[in-house]
Specification:
The chain has 363 residues and is mostly helical. The chain has one domain. It has helices spanning 2-7, 10-31, 42-63, 65-70, 72-89, 109-127, 135-153, 158-175, 179-191, 193-199, 202-212, 223-234, 246-249, 261-290, 298-322, 340-355; strands at 91-93, 96-102, 105-107. The longest helix is centred in the last third of the chain and has 30 residues, at 261-290. It is globular and about 60 Å long. Mean pLDDT is 88; it is low at 1-7.
């Protein structure tokens, strides 16, 4: 750890520690009930995952990002294989097949696919830095992106599948790929929305309709969004206080330990607490982006860009879901929402970005 704090940016570690504190307080509150009975202590279980994630963080930073890039294609291929296995024999919950269960251990390969995709994209584009103006590089990058998207949509998990597109666009932009290619991709995506409606599952269509008007199904698909907005709105400026949120403590708010953990923060800590969380994530992203100035390695720059895109897209979508600005797509709040796979994959991404600082600029 001494080498990490000296060689890297200690402020990043401090910010991560603060976010962990927010997560533990919020998850304990989400576990707590007004009766005093705690059916499941999410905070204690998440603390165990945090310890594992920190250990992996230290190991990956020590190992160095370049070595992980050397194995990027193999890691990505293995991750794609896991996604295929999930579709064949994965565990099904709430109509979705997204998990592999090995005894009491549950793995969500789609979370780790974010890591392998960032690695393989940085490796491929970095290796073709002399041909960035070529349509071949753009098309190949797009095809690499579409493979996990297709497999994850089949689970179905539209929220996680959507994460791969901003990663692709961010990495291509930082690499200097021609803007007209990216504009064409975005335009094609917008024009394909009507076709996308035809392939969506019934519950996904219902979520989109509820996003437009939650009151069309206030006791069904719209219930969580309505309760989330009530929770955040009732928090006011400084909140109701820890363990004092009525929507949370009286069990009105579903999925408050995972997808809607931000609602717990908004209700108990108010506008002040919500802004604090946003500031922490913003500062973390800025410190990560500053790493790109410490290396002349294009692959390292692209790796950091992919990590920032992954982090901030999930933060934006999760908070927008909680306040009713976006449809519910089931994305966790990074480092805060309960879940081992999400926490570990995020910490692995952060470790890869931090390790880029090893490679200094060459003058």
């Amino acid at each position: 750890m001494r080498g990490i704090t000296q060689d890297k940016d200690p402020l990043i570690l401090v910010v991560i520690a603060f976010i962990f504190m927010v997560a533990l307080f919020s998850l304990y509150s989400a576990s707590h009930q007004s009766t005093g009975v705690m059916q499941k202590n999410f905070a204690m279980q998440q603390l165990i995952w945090m310890a594992i994630a920190v250990g992996l963080f230290v190991f990956i930073v020590w190992f160095g990002y370049e070595r992980w890039l050397d194995y990027a294609y193999l890691i990505f291929a293995l991750n794609i294989l896991l996604l295929i296995i999930v579709l064949a024999i994965g565990s099904t919950r709430l109509g979705a097949r997204r998990w592999l269960s090995i005894g009491s251990f549950v793995l969500q390969p789609s979370e780790f696919c974010k890591v392998s995709f960032v690695l393989v994209l940085a490796r491929y584009i970095g290796d073709n830095k002399n041909n960035l103006g070529s349509i071949k590089v753009f098309i190949t990058s797009l095809l690499i992106c579409m493979v996990p998207i297709f497999l994850i949509i089949k689970q179905p998990d539209l929220g996680t599948a959507l994460v791969f597109l901003p990663i692709l666009l961010m990495v291509l932009f930082v690499a200097g790929v021609r803007l007209r290619y990216m504009f064409g991709l975005v335009l094609t995506g917008l024009l394909s929305f009507p076709m996308l409606w035809l392939v969506l599952k019934d519950y996904q269509r219902q979520r989109l309709l509820v996003f437009l008007n939650p009151n069309i199904d206030p006791l069904g698909a719209g219930y969580t969004v309505i309760q989330s907005k009530i929770a955040i709105g009732s928090g006011g400026i400084f909140g109701k206080g820890w363990l004092s949120g009525t929507q949370n403590q009286f069990n009105f708010l579903p999925e408050r330990h995972s997808d809607f953990i931000f609602s717990v923060i908004g209700e108990e800590w108010g506008f002040f607490g919500a802004v604090l969380v946003l500031v922490l994530f913003l500062f973390l992203a800025m410190r990560l982006l500053s790493i790109t100035n410490t290396t002349s390695d294009l692959r390292g720059k692209l790796l950091v860009a992919g990590v920032v895109a992954t982090l901030w897209f999930q933060v934006f979508v999760n908070i927008a879901m909680a306040i009713g600005f976006m449809p519910v797509v089931g994305l966790p709040l990074p480092l805060v929402s309960y879940g081992g796979s999400s926490l570990i994959s995020t910490m692995v991404l952060l470790a890869l970005a931090v390790s880029v600082r090893h490679k200094r600029k060459i003058f």
